[in-house]
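Lecture notes, unit on protein representations.

Consider one protein chain, 344 amino acids long.
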Amino acid sequence: MILVTGGAGYIGSHTLIELSKSNYEFIVYDNLCNSSSESLKRVSNIINKNVIFEKGDIRDKKRLQKVFEKYDINSVIHFAGLKAVGESVEQPLKYYDNNVNGTLVLLEIMKKYKCKKIVFSSSATVYNEKDTKNYTPLKESDPTGNTTNPYGTSKYMIERILNDLCVSDDEFKVVILRYFNPVGAHESGTIGEDPSGIPNNLMPFIAQTAVGKREFLSVFGDDYDTEDGTGVRDYIHVADLANAHVKAIEYINSDQFNIKHSKFNIGTGTGYSVLEMLKAYEKVSNQKVPYKIAPRRAGDIAVCYADSSLAKEVLGWSATKTLEQMCQDSVRWQSNNPDGYSNG
């Protein structure tokens, strides 16, 4: 059975559907600090099966122990953590406590109960900033660690912890997935990204502005060294990203698993600017998205997109969904759920 920490969140909930399609049994462990149990009810409807849910915080050792005692857990997909770049700059201690300390507690309990397989949700923010003029897609072998914000640093620290753990105990099997920018929603339009308060990601901001929930979209910086001056990112459909976790679990359980090939970029390999995303959304939704240029955000870089060829070669995974599909599914989710899960 797979323990999915943070499984009620945006990426976690979509991964449950992909796991179910491949007939994996799982339990969700989540403290619901930035997610909703409503997402799990809707996942249950999609997969036509009850989702086992245990409420708890990954920093709560006693609570975690009870879950490991109650269920026969053989592997973990670890999503639980805080993820807002801007907030991490303002509140670094909160991020190191939740993300790094929380992971340490989880790994201690896993070791105690001899559960030694983990898929960790990392981030492209672990990479060093590249020269925009001579930009080449990020490869797994590119330098990491000179991070630009505490969120990225927390992910980098956890990667180092996992590396050191594998050196100390060769029974541990770890797959690290470095996400680029997840967007979109499930094709049913019943689950999607539901940020509490002000969104941290571009797509829900665009969607909320398009339906009039927000007066305008703030575009942070138009003076980057890019085609139109706005930041360029690799946007990946959340269903494609979710599927990468199933491939990672298959790989970690296979005879082909090799610790030398355990870190993978999960992106499309194509970079889109903020204004390109905005125009693509306008085209699909037939709605104008008013925007204003705002100052750059602390910790943001100009260009970031992936070389995901290693994931294709080793995991047999690649992104399948187009920018148009990402926008269509976002439009469907937003129009069906103008207030996210709170109107569920």
